[in-house]
Amino acid sequence: MHLAHLSRDVHLTYCTNIHAGESWDEVRQSLETHVPHIKAKVSPQNAFGLGLRLSGIAAEALSAPAVLDEFRAFLARENLYVFTINAFPYGPFHGRRVKEDVYQPDWLAPERLRYTDRAAEILATLLPEGMVGSVSTVPGTFKAVAAARPDAARAMADALARHVATLVSLRRRTGREIVLALEPEPCCFLETVEETIAFFRDHLHTDASAAIVADQTGTSPAAAHDALRRHLGVCYDVCHGAVEFEEPARAFAQLGGAGIRIGKTAERLSGSLCRPGALVCGAARRRGRGRVARPLSRAGVPGDRRGLSFDATDAEGGACCRQVGLCRTASRGRNLYVGCAAA
Q1: How confident is the model at residue 243, as a pLDDT?
Q2: Per-residue pLDDT tens over the stretch 196-222
Q3: CA–CA separation, 262 vs 337, rounded Å?
Q4: Residue pLDDT, tens place only, 92-116
Q5: How far apart are CA 108 and CA 192, in angstroms?
Protein backbone atom coordinates (compact mmCIF):
# COMPACT_ATOMS: atom_id res chain seq x y z
CA MET A 1 0.00 0.00 0.00
CA HIS A 2 1.11 3.58 -0.61
CA LEU A 3 2.61 5.31 2.44
CA ALA A 4 1.47 8.82 1.56
CA HIS A 5 2.74 10.37 4.80
CA LEU A 6 6.36 9.82 3.74
CA SER A 7 8.17 12.34 1.58
CA ARG A 8 8.95 9.90 -1.23
CA ASP A 9 6.87 7.50 -3.25
CA VAL A 10 7.06 4.53 -0.86
CA HIS A 11 4.91 1.40 -0.95
CA LEU A 12 4.65 -1.23 1.78
CA THR A 13 3.72 -4.88 1.32
CA TYR A 14 4.68 -8.41 2.24
CA CYS A 15 6.23 -10.83 -0.21
CA THR A 16 4.10 -13.72 -1.41
CA ASN A 17 7.06 -16.09 -1.21
CA ILE A 18 5.79 -17.02 2.26
CA HIS A 19 3.03 -18.98 0.50
CA ALA A 20 4.26 -22.29 -0.92
CA GLY A 21 3.78 -22.66 -4.66
CA GLU A 22 6.03 -23.03 -7.68
CA SER A 23 3.71 -23.35 -10.68
CA TRP A 24 1.56 -20.42 -11.71
CA ASP A 25 -1.58 -22.37 -10.86
CA GLU A 26 -0.28 -22.87 -7.31
CA VAL A 27 0.72 -19.22 -7.01
CA ARG A 28 -2.63 -18.01 -8.32
CA GLN A 29 -4.51 -20.27 -5.91
CA SER A 30 -2.49 -19.01 -2.94
CA LEU A 31 -3.09 -15.40 -3.95
CA GLU A 32 -6.82 -15.94 -4.29
CA THR A 33 -6.93 -17.75 -0.95
CA HIS A 34 -4.81 -15.47 1.22
CA VAL A 35 -4.47 -11.98 -0.24
CA PRO A 36 -8.10 -10.77 -0.02
CA HIS A 37 -8.16 -11.63 3.69
CA ILE A 38 -4.88 -9.82 4.30
CA LYS A 39 -6.03 -6.76 2.39
CA ALA A 40 -9.27 -6.66 4.38
CA LYS A 41 -7.26 -6.36 7.59
CA VAL A 42 -4.46 -4.09 6.40
CA SER A 43 -5.88 -1.86 3.68
CA PRO A 44 -9.65 -2.35 3.48
CA GLN A 45 -10.46 0.97 1.77
CA ASN A 46 -7.38 1.63 -0.34
CA ALA A 47 -5.54 -0.28 -3.02
CA PHE A 48 -3.11 -2.85 -1.65
CA GLY A 49 0.25 -3.51 -3.34
CA LEU A 50 1.68 -6.98 -3.81
CA GLY A 51 5.27 -8.20 -3.71
CA LEU A 52 4.84 -11.03 -6.20
CA ARG A 53 7.23 -13.98 -6.06
CA LEU A 54 7.52 -15.86 -9.34
CA SER A 55 9.58 -19.00 -9.90
CA GLY A 56 11.02 -19.70 -13.32
CA ILE A 57 8.11 -21.90 -14.37
CA ALA A 58 5.52 -19.52 -12.92
CA ALA A 59 7.01 -16.56 -14.78
CA GLU A 60 6.99 -18.51 -18.04
CA ALA A 61 3.33 -19.44 -17.59
CA LEU A 62 2.27 -15.93 -16.59
CA SER A 63 3.93 -14.51 -19.71
CA ALA A 64 1.12 -15.96 -21.84
CA PRO A 65 -1.15 -13.02 -22.80
CA ALA A 66 -4.38 -14.76 -21.83
CA VAL A 67 -3.01 -15.78 -18.43
CA LEU A 68 -1.67 -12.29 -17.81
CA ASP A 69 -5.03 -10.74 -18.73
CA GLU A 70 -6.79 -13.07 -16.31
CA PHE A 71 -4.41 -12.05 -13.52
CA ARG A 72 -4.89 -8.36 -14.28
CA ALA A 73 -8.64 -8.86 -13.98
CA PHE A 74 -8.13 -10.46 -10.54
CA LEU A 75 -6.01 -7.50 -9.43
CA ALA A 76 -8.63 -5.01 -10.59
CA ARG A 77 -11.46 -6.95 -8.98
CA GLU A 78 -9.70 -7.09 -5.60
CA ASN A 79 -8.27 -3.55 -5.77
CA LEU A 80 -4.68 -4.81 -5.81
CA TYR A 81 -1.59 -3.75 -7.70
CA VAL A 82 1.87 -5.24 -8.24
CA PHE A 83 4.82 -2.89 -7.80
CA THR A 84 7.63 -5.35 -7.09
CA ILE A 85 8.56 -8.89 -8.08
CA ASN A 86 10.79 -11.27 -6.16
CA ALA A 87 12.84 -12.97 -8.86
CA PHE A 88 15.49 -14.20 -6.42
CA PRO A 89 14.69 -17.93 -6.08
CA TYR A 90 14.32 -19.44 -9.53
CA GLY A 91 13.26 -22.90 -8.35
CA PRO A 92 11.56 -24.53 -5.36
CA PHE A 93 12.54 -23.49 -1.87
CA HIS A 94 9.66 -24.69 0.27
CA GLY A 95 9.80 -28.10 1.94
CA ARG A 96 13.29 -29.10 0.80
CA ARG A 97 16.97 -28.33 1.31
CA VAL A 98 17.98 -25.24 -0.61
CA LYS A 99 21.05 -23.56 0.94
CA GLU A 100 23.52 -22.60 -1.82
CA ASP A 101 21.23 -24.03 -4.52
CA VAL A 102 18.80 -21.14 -4.05
CA TYR A 103 21.18 -18.92 -6.07
CA GLN A 104 21.06 -21.15 -9.13
CA PRO A 105 20.88 -20.30 -11.91
CA ASP A 106 23.08 -17.36 -10.94
CA TRP A 107 24.22 -14.36 -12.94
CA LEU A 108 26.90 -16.51 -14.56
CA ALA A 109 24.18 -18.59 -16.23
CA PRO A 110 22.20 -17.47 -19.31
CA GLU A 111 18.94 -18.71 -17.80
CA ARG A 112 19.18 -16.14 -14.99
CA LEU A 113 19.19 -13.36 -17.57
CA ARG A 114 16.26 -14.87 -19.49
CA TYR A 115 14.27 -15.35 -16.27
CA THR A 116 14.91 -11.79 -15.08
CA ASP A 117 14.07 -10.31 -18.49
CA ARG A 118 10.78 -12.21 -18.38
CA ALA A 119 10.00 -10.99 -14.85
CA ALA A 120 10.64 -7.39 -15.93
CA GLU A 121 8.35 -7.79 -18.95
CA ILE A 122 5.59 -9.07 -16.64
CA LEU A 123 6.07 -6.23 -14.19
CA ALA A 124 5.99 -3.63 -16.95
CA THR A 125 2.55 -4.97 -17.91
CA LEU A 126 1.24 -4.97 -14.33
CA LEU A 127 2.85 -1.81 -12.93
CA PRO A 128 0.46 1.14 -12.52
CA GLU A 129 1.25 4.18 -14.62
CA GLY A 130 3.61 6.66 -13.00
CA MET A 131 4.93 4.18 -10.45
CA VAL A 132 8.53 2.92 -10.31
CA GLY A 133 8.77 -0.86 -10.08
CA SER A 134 11.49 -3.15 -8.76
CA VAL A 135 12.65 -6.71 -9.29
CA SER A 136 14.89 -8.25 -6.64
CA THR A 137 17.53 -10.75 -7.63
CA VAL A 138 20.39 -12.86 -6.30
CA PRO A 139 23.64 -11.13 -5.23
CA GLY A 140 25.52 -12.40 -8.24
CA THR A 141 26.28 -15.92 -7.12
CA PHE A 142 27.37 -17.97 -4.13
CA LYS A 143 30.77 -16.73 -2.93
CA ALA A 144 32.55 -20.06 -3.44
CA VAL A 145 31.34 -20.20 -7.04
CA ALA A 146 32.70 -16.73 -7.78
CA ALA A 147 36.01 -17.58 -6.11
CA ALA A 148 36.48 -20.49 -8.50
CA ARG A 149 36.14 -18.25 -11.58
CA PRO A 150 38.65 -15.43 -12.04
CA ASP A 151 36.36 -13.76 -14.59
CA ALA A 152 33.20 -14.05 -12.49
CA ALA A 153 32.79 -10.37 -11.65
CA ARG A 154 33.20 -9.19 -15.23
CA ALA A 155 30.97 -11.96 -16.60
CA MET A 156 28.16 -11.12 -14.18
CA ALA A 157 28.52 -7.41 -14.88
CA ASP A 158 28.17 -8.09 -18.61
CA ALA A 159 24.95 -10.06 -18.02
CA LEU A 160 23.57 -7.32 -15.77
CA ALA A 161 24.38 -4.69 -18.39
CA ARG A 162 22.46 -6.71 -20.98
CA HIS A 163 19.50 -6.76 -18.61
CA VAL A 164 19.74 -2.99 -18.24
CA ALA A 165 19.46 -2.77 -22.03
CA THR A 166 16.21 -4.72 -21.75
CA LEU A 167 14.94 -2.31 -19.08
CA VAL A 168 15.82 0.67 -21.26
CA SER A 169 13.86 -0.84 -24.15
CA LEU A 170 10.92 -1.59 -21.83
CA ARG A 171 10.84 2.00 -20.64
CA ARG A 172 10.80 3.26 -24.21
CA ARG A 173 8.01 0.91 -25.19
CA THR A 174 5.79 0.99 -22.12
CA GLY A 175 6.77 4.11 -20.18
CA ARG A 176 7.40 1.94 -17.11
CA GLU A 177 10.59 2.43 -15.11
CA ILE A 178 11.94 -0.70 -13.44
CA VAL A 179 14.94 -1.13 -11.14
CA LEU A 180 16.77 -4.43 -10.82
CA ALA A 181 17.72 -4.68 -7.13
CA LEU A 182 20.59 -7.00 -6.21
CA GLU A 183 20.17 -8.33 -2.68
CA PRO A 184 23.43 -8.66 -0.72
CA GLU A 185 23.39 -11.76 1.44
CA PRO A 186 25.82 -13.58 3.75
CA CYS A 187 28.07 -16.13 2.03
CA CYS A 188 27.44 -14.62 -1.41
CA PHE A 189 29.49 -12.72 -3.96
CA LEU A 190 27.83 -9.53 -2.74
CA GLU A 191 27.79 -9.98 1.01
CA THR A 192 28.46 -6.58 2.57
CA VAL A 193 27.78 -2.97 1.66
CA GLU A 194 31.49 -2.49 1.02
CA GLU A 195 31.61 -5.41 -1.43
CA THR A 196 28.48 -4.14 -3.15
CA ILE A 197 29.86 -0.64 -3.57
CA ALA A 198 33.13 -2.03 -4.94
CA PHE A 199 31.30 -4.19 -7.51
CA PHE A 200 29.21 -1.28 -8.74
CA ARG A 201 32.24 1.02 -8.87
CA ASP A 202 34.65 -1.40 -10.53
CA HIS A 203 32.34 -3.36 -12.83
CA LEU A 204 28.87 -1.81 -13.28
CA HIS A 205 29.35 1.97 -13.27
CA THR A 206 32.08 1.58 -15.88
CA ASP A 207 32.73 2.32 -19.52
CA ALA A 208 32.77 -1.41 -20.28
CA SER A 209 29.22 -1.92 -18.97
CA ALA A 210 28.03 1.32 -20.55
CA ALA A 211 29.37 0.14 -23.91
CA ILE A 212 27.16 -2.96 -23.73
CA VAL A 213 24.08 -0.88 -22.94
CA ALA A 214 24.90 1.68 -25.64
CA ASP A 215 25.48 -1.03 -28.26
CA GLN A 216 22.22 -2.85 -27.51
CA THR A 217 20.01 0.24 -27.19
CA GLY A 218 21.58 2.67 -29.65
CA THR A 219 22.10 5.30 -26.95
CA SER A 220 25.08 7.52 -26.32
CA PRO A 221 27.74 6.50 -23.80
CA ALA A 222 26.50 9.20 -21.43
CA ALA A 223 22.91 7.95 -21.68
CA ALA A 224 24.12 4.39 -21.13
CA HIS A 225 25.92 5.42 -17.93
CA ASP A 226 22.73 7.11 -16.76
CA ALA A 227 20.73 3.96 -17.54
CA LEU A 228 23.06 1.81 -15.43
CA ARG A 229 22.49 4.09 -12.44
CA ARG A 230 18.76 4.36 -13.07
CA HIS A 231 18.00 0.68 -13.63
CA LEU A 232 20.48 -1.10 -11.33
CA GLY A 233 20.31 -0.84 -7.57
CA VAL A 234 20.15 -2.75 -4.31
CA CYS A 235 17.51 -4.55 -2.29
CA TYR A 236 18.75 -3.97 1.24
CA ASP A 237 17.60 -6.64 3.67
CA VAL A 238 18.12 -5.50 7.24
CA CYS A 239 18.28 -9.12 8.43
CA HIS A 240 21.14 -9.87 6.06
CA GLY A 241 22.80 -6.63 7.07
CA ALA A 242 22.49 -7.54 10.74
CA VAL A 243 24.52 -10.70 10.12
CA GLU A 244 27.32 -8.40 8.93
CA PHE A 245 26.89 -6.00 11.89
CA GLU A 246 25.67 -3.25 9.57
CA GLU A 247 23.52 -0.37 10.79
CA PRO A 248 20.74 0.23 8.21
CA ALA A 249 20.97 4.04 8.35
CA ARG A 250 24.72 3.97 7.75
CA ALA A 251 24.34 1.38 4.99
CA PHE A 252 21.78 3.54 3.19
CA ALA A 253 24.08 6.55 3.48
CA GLN A 254 27.03 4.58 2.07
CA LEU A 255 25.02 3.30 -0.87
CA GLY A 256 23.59 6.71 -1.60
CA GLY A 257 27.03 8.29 -1.41
CA ALA A 258 28.23 5.79 -4.01
CA GLY A 259 25.39 6.69 -6.34
CA ILE A 260 23.69 3.31 -5.93
CA ARG A 261 19.93 3.33 -6.03
CA ILE A 262 18.00 1.55 -3.28
CA GLY A 263 15.14 -0.06 -5.18
CA LYS A 264 13.73 -2.06 -2.29
CA THR A 265 14.26 -2.74 1.37
CA ALA A 266 13.23 -5.89 3.18
CA GLU A 267 12.72 -6.72 6.82
CA ARG A 268 12.16 -10.27 7.98
CA LEU A 269 10.43 -10.77 11.27
CA SER A 270 9.55 -13.86 13.25
CA GLY A 271 6.91 -14.61 15.83
CA SER A 272 9.40 -13.97 18.64
CA LEU A 273 12.36 -11.65 18.83
CA CYS A 274 15.76 -12.81 19.94
CA ARG A 275 17.01 -11.21 23.13
CA PRO A 276 19.29 -8.27 22.22
CA GLY A 277 22.89 -9.39 22.20
CA ALA A 278 21.99 -13.06 22.04
CA LEU A 279 23.22 -13.78 18.50
CA VAL A 280 26.71 -14.98 17.76
CA CYS A 281 27.71 -14.80 14.12
CA GLY A 282 29.76 -17.74 12.92
CA ALA A 283 30.78 -15.91 9.77
CA ALA A 284 32.15 -13.03 11.83
CA ARG A 285 33.96 -15.46 14.13
CA ARG A 286 35.72 -17.03 11.15
CA ARG A 287 36.84 -13.56 10.08
CA GLY A 288 38.36 -12.87 13.46
CA ARG A 289 35.45 -10.69 14.53
CA GLY A 290 34.04 -13.18 17.00
CA ARG A 291 31.68 -11.11 19.11
CA VAL A 292 28.09 -11.12 20.15
CA ALA A 293 25.91 -9.30 17.68
CA ARG A 294 24.74 -6.01 19.14
CA PRO A 295 21.11 -5.02 18.77
CA LEU A 296 20.31 -2.87 15.74
CA SER A 297 18.02 0.09 15.53
CA ARG A 298 14.85 -1.26 14.00
CA ALA A 299 14.75 0.10 10.42
CA GLY A 300 17.29 2.71 11.48
CA VAL A 301 14.94 4.39 13.99
CA PRO A 302 16.97 5.86 16.87
CA GLY A 303 16.04 4.71 20.32
CA ASP A 304 14.35 1.47 19.32
CA ARG A 305 16.89 -1.15 20.37
CA ARG A 306 14.96 -4.37 19.99
CA GLY A 307 17.00 -7.26 18.68
CA LEU A 308 16.32 -8.62 15.22
CA SER A 309 15.67 -12.34 14.82
CA PHE A 310 16.24 -14.46 11.77
CA ASP A 311 13.55 -16.52 10.09
CA ALA A 312 14.93 -20.05 9.72
CA THR A 313 12.08 -20.96 7.35
CA ASP A 314 13.10 -18.32 4.79
CA ALA A 315 15.09 -19.86 1.97
CA GLU A 316 16.85 -16.59 1.16
CA GLY A 317 17.74 -15.46 4.67
CA GLY A 318 17.18 -18.54 6.79
CA ALA A 319 19.18 -21.02 4.74
CA CYS A 320 22.29 -18.88 4.97
CA CYS A 321 21.65 -18.05 8.62
CA ARG A 322 21.62 -21.75 9.38
CA GLN A 323 24.74 -22.20 7.31
CA VAL A 324 26.81 -19.61 9.18
CA GLY A 325 25.66 -20.84 12.55
CA LEU A 326 23.22 -18.17 13.66
CA CYS A 327 20.43 -18.86 16.11
CA ARG A 328 17.32 -20.54 14.76
CA THR A 329 13.89 -19.30 15.72
CA ALA A 330 10.73 -21.33 15.46
CA SER A 331 8.81 -18.71 13.57
CA ARG A 332 5.66 -17.68 11.92
CA GLY A 333 7.84 -15.74 9.52
CA ARG A 334 6.61 -13.00 7.25
CA ASN A 335 8.40 -10.70 4.84
CA LEU A 336 7.76 -7.00 4.73
CA TYR A 337 9.06 -5.37 1.59
CA VAL A 338 9.22 -1.66 1.13
CA GLY A 339 9.48 -0.70 -2.53
CA CYS A 340 11.08 2.73 -2.78
CA ALA A 341 11.15 5.01 -5.78
CA ALA A 342 14.51 6.30 -4.58
CA ALA A 343 16.54 8.66 -6.69
Answers
A1: 85
A2: 999 999 999 999 999 999 999 999 999
A3: 12
A4: 654 455 567 788 999 999 999 999 9
A5: 20
The 3-class secondary structure across the chain, one letter per residue, is CECCCCCCCEEEEEEHHHCCCCCHHHHHHHHHHHHHHHHHHHCCCCCEEEEEECCHHHHHHHCCHHHHHHHHHHHHHHCEEEEEEECCCCCCCCCCCCHHHHHCCCCCCHHHHHHHHHHHHHHHHHCCCCCCEEEEECCCCEHHHHHCCCCHHHHHHHHHHHHHHHHHHHHHHHCCCEEEEECCCCCECCCCHHHHHHHHHHHHCCHHHHHHHHHHHCCCHHHHHHHHHHHEEEEEEHHHHHHCCCCHHHHHHHHHHCCCEEEEEEEEECCCCCCCCCCECHHHHHCCCCCECCCCCHHHCCCCCCCCCCECCCCCHHHHHHHCCCCCECCCCEEEEEEECCC
Under 8 Å between Cβ of 81 and 47: yes
Q: What is the model's pLDDT at position 98?
A: 56
- Whether residue 64 is predicted with pLDDT greater than 60 in this model: the reply is yes
Residues β-bridged to residue 53: 86
Cα separation, 302 vs 50, in Å, equals 29
Q: At what angle do helices 207-217 and 152-174 cross, to 10 degrees?
A: 40
**pLDDT per residue as tens digits for the range 139-192:** 999 999 999 999 999 999 999 999 999 999 999 999 999 999 999 999 999 999
Distance between terminal CA atoms of the chain?
Answer: 20
Cα angle at 53 between 248 and 45, to 5 degrees? 80
Domain parsing of the chain, residue ranges: 10-276+333-340
Decide if 261 contacts 298 (C-beta within 8 A).
no
For residue 329, the cross-strand partners are: 311
In this structure, which CATH number among 1.20.120, 3.40.50, 3.20.20, 3.30.70 belongs to the domain 10-276+333-340?
3.20.20
Distance CA 48, CA 2 (A): 8
